[in-house]
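If you are new to this repository, start here. Below is one unmodified record pulled from the training split, so you can see the exact layout before writing a loader.
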Amino acid sequence: MSDLTPTYFISQELRDLLMHQIGEIKKENVTLQQSLREQQTQTASETEDLFLELLEVADALEALLTYLENNPSPSPEFIERLPCSVAAVNRKFLSVLGKRQLIPIELQAGIEPDFNLCRVIDREERTDVPDQTITKIVRRGFRWGEKILRPTEVITAKVESSLDGNIN
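And here is the target side for that same chain:
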C-alpha cells in the first residue's frame, strides 16, 4: 500500500515570509487581547462610578421616604421644604445623566411640535391657541449625543372646525 498523503514543498523565502506573518498575527492578537482587557476594565470602572452616583440619588430619596414613614404628620416646615428637596434630588439625578451626555430635550408649550424631537400622544380641543400648538408636555424627552433616546411626549391643540357638516 502506498502513502497517498500529498507532500508540499515551499521555498525557504516563502517559509520565512509565512513565519514572519504568523509572528505578526500573534503579536497583533496579544495587543488586541490587552486592549480588550483595558476596555473591559475601563467599562467596569465607569459602570461602578455610575452606580455609586445613582446610589447617592437613591439615598436622598430613601432619606425623604424614611422621614415620611417615621413622621406620619410631618411639620408644616417639612412640607414647605419638600418641593425644594425633591427638586434637589431631581437635579442630582439629571446631573448624573448629564455626565453621560444624556441631556433633556428642551421644548416649551405654545409652539408647534418638532416631530424629530417629540411625539404627540393626545390632542385636546382648544380655542385659545392655534391648531397643532403644544399645550402640555406629558413626559420629558432625552437626547444622548446626537441621538434622540426618547422623544418628548406632548399634547397638542385641536381647533374644532367651524363647519357644522351641512352643505347648502
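Two things worth knowing about this chain: The two ends are 106 Å apart (CA to CA). Strands lie at 102-104, 118-125, 134-139, 142-144, 147-150, 152-158.
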